[in-house]
Amino acid sequence: PRLRNIGWKHTMPPQYVRTMKKTCIFLTTLTALTLTACHRPVKPHFEFSTLDTLIGDATYDCRVEYRFAAIANTAKSDALRTIEERNIIYFFELEEFDGTAAEAMAESLRQLDEELRLPTTAAPSVARMECEVSVESEGTVVDTLLNYAIYRSSYLGGAHGMYTTAYHTYSLTTGYEYSAAELFGQERMEPLTALIRKKLYEKYEATNDNELSARGFFPEYIAVTDNFKVTREGVVFLYNPYEIACYATGDIEVAISHEELAAL
Fold first, then answer.
1. What pLDDT is attached to residue 68?
2. % the chain with pLDDT above 90
3. R_g over Cα of the chain
């Protein structure tokens, strides 16, 4: 929410005006965290929906494990109901799905089987494939924000498996999902990118992009990501394998404190 101008600038001493300006910058950065205590949103209560099963046919076997953090009290808040709908789509990787978590689980297995199943004409000449998919999620509340994390790992053939972490940041007041530019301000994206790059230099003992590149990075792809979680201390941006560096580098976290954000 924006702070309204009610004439204080013209009546208060200059030192108070400067203090208010700094405070305004900080609150703009953390706009979703400043809801008044008299109108606190409903906090989610999580219950887990789990599945451990084996699917397959003559050409493949696939172990599937799901641990979905479902919001059990969606009836108490339109915002929570909206968030739950989005989480179901994200977790089970479905498009334009409108149904329960149990229905999404069944549809996800159907689509996975369809993806892995080979034509019957190919079955006699193809070795049986062993694969696995594991997905779990969790939610944490920071003031009026919900951080929802989805951890996904899989091996579906090829040289190695793949793992990713996806963060989604919601307003518990409206159910709206924030991008980094919306939460921290579009005007901060360029200086924030520079700060992230500086922290990568420090973390990986590099002094420039060429040295980062020698360590397996793709410097041209370094930018503010919408894959972030808000913490009590600030914000953590996460880059999955191949996003800004090679697979061997692993996932990359860059933590920015509230003080560093306010200084941008």
1. 98
2. 74
3. 23
DSSP state of 250: -
- Report the C-alpha gap between 10 and 20 in whole angstroms: 13
Q: 235 CB contacts (<8 Å, ≥6 apart)?
A: 184, 228, 229, 255, 256, 261
Question: In the chain, which residues have pLDDT < 70?
Answer: 1-39, 119-127
| Pairing of the two strands 129-142 and 60-71 | parallel
φ/ψ of 153, rounded to 5, equals: -135, 145
Tell me whether residue 68 is exposed, middle or buried, using C-beta atoms within 10 angstroms of its C-beta: 0 to 12, 13 to 18, 19 or more. Answer: buried
Q: Is 132 helix (H, G, I), strand (E, B) or coil?
A: strand
The pLDDT value recorded for residue 157 is 79
Instruction: Say if CB 233 and CB 250 are below 8 A apart.
Output: no
